[in-house]
């Protein structure tokens, strides 16, 4: 695993998040790394988790520590393990004394026709992409309530709003994340805690690179045709969404200016859902 590029140079300036503690799941790569970097750059203390070798993880922690004035701590919680998720939330509160922001970003994908969809892949995708969000929210909410303020941001997908063939588990999990977001937003609406989901279209990350070959196989087309005719043709802008565009929205949702935005599923999809 490489420390992937997460160009945060173009991000909108945000309110300072100094003395705020954020958890970003799945922050060793791709979108999560970009979001963690953005939060660190405006002063937040950040707890990250995610898979990778010890050396890769150390590189990510060093990169994040160099990005801002806050402190960065790594949790080895696997999002399929309830006890480890509970320990990650407790680690954040022990290290920083409070928890202010939870970004549920960890996710996996598998592409196959439903009749061939491996059962273990179904179980893993539901566990990481949906149940993991439930457990982090379940464990973080008492701390956000004690804090009398908070932000929960779930990185869903366009596939929380519309479907594509061959992604039964992913689309089911992401639609579930949208429902979970709305329910928890209602429960916490009068507690100064907002709960939203961001629904990105295609973003060029290791997760997307990994699904090109499977999609080519499932559709019987070439890898280039997957990128141009399946992915980019879905987005009227004709380009991949950039990680800094998602990180900017996270910073805005964390700001006071976004305090009335809750229960929203916010597309960042180059116009995909407008069609
Ligand atoms: P990525 O593969 O680059 O990163 C995924 C992260 O999740 C990594 O840090 C990985 O280690 C972590 N992770 C995976 N399984 C885990 C587990 N069991 N326990 C703990 N951490 C685990 O992927 P990405 O493209 O950056 O995706 C991040 C999120 O954005 C996902 O939820 C994905 O569904 C969503 N998303 C991605 C795209 C896209 O086009 N890339 C589009 C819409 C939504």
3D architecture notes:
Strand 5, helix 5 (168-188) and strand 6 (193-200) form a beta-alpha-beta unit. The chain has 275 residues and is α/β, with parallel strands linked by helices. The protein contains eight helices and seven strands, in the order E-H-E-H-E-H-E-H-E-H-E-H-H-H-E. Residues 1-6 have low confidence and may be disordered.
List keywords for this structure.
Rossmann fold; alpha/beta; 8 helices; binds nicotinamide-adenine-dinucleotide; 275 residues; single chain
CATH architecture: 3-Layer(aba) Sandwich
**CATH T-level fold name:** Rossmann fold
Biggest sheet details: 7 strands, parallel
- Total discrete domains: 1
CA radius of gyration is: 18 Å
Uncertain spans? 1-6
State the helix count: 8
Number of strands: 7
CATH class call: Alpha Beta
In percent, how much strand structure appears in the residues? 5-15%
CATH superfamily: NAD(P)-binding Rossmann-like Domain
In short:
By secondary structure, the chain is of the alpha/beta class. The chain is built from 8 helices and 7 strands, in the order βαβαβαβαβαβαααβ.
Describe the secondary structure blueprint for this structure.
Layout: E1 21-24, H1 30-41, E2 45-48, H2 54-65, E3 72-74, H3 82-96, E4 101-104, H4 119-147, E5 150-155, H5 168-188, E6 193-200, H6 206-219, H7 223-231, H8 243-254, E7 265-268
Parallel strand pairs: 1-2, 1-4, 2-3, 4-5, 5-6, 6-7
This protein binds nicotinamide-adenine-dinucleotide.
Nicotinamide-adenine-dinucleotide (NAD) binds at residues 26-32, 49-51, 78-80, 105-108, 128, 155, 157, 200, 202-203, 205-208.
